[in-house]
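Please, does this match?
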Amino acid sequence: MTAILGLAGLVYSPALLILALVFGVVTYLLYYQASGRMLDRIYRGVERKAATGSADRNRGGFGAGPREEWTPPRQEQRQRARRQQSRRERVRQARQRRRAGGGQRRQRTNAVQQQSGPTIPEAAQILDVDPGADESTVKRAYRDRIKDVHPDASDGDEEEFKRVQAAYERLTD
């Protein structure tokens, strides 16, 4: 924006050039503050004034010297970043352990589910399809069979309904 106003000031009006100068100063100050140089300069000045050997004796005051526990802001930022990094690393490791543990649990659960229920040939016989039938054929046979055995139907059977569902699940897995 400063560059555009500067060019417009050169071409059109000196008032825009003055406005560009103001924007340029503000831009520089914002950069100076964002880069951390301003804060460093302030802290260096405070430390220089608070140093025991160079304190202004005529100013008076309560004689506070430099704080021993004070660490420069860059060191604090590094320490904070290290703490956050170690925290992130612990969270990441915990997530990996959960994922690994969760996958094992699912495998065990699937193994138990595969042991219970009908085998593939039994499931195919329950739905009255070939054991190697494609999914659309199995789905169509399941829908036809489930209508007949649904517990809400007039001649429905709950046990047979469960057997048909188990057979469908076995054939679609």
Observations:
- The helical segments are 2-11, 14-34, 37-50, 73-115, 120-127, 135-149, 158-172.
- The mean pLDDT is 78.
- Residues 106 and 112 are 10 Å apart (CA to CA).
- The radius of gyration is 39 Å.
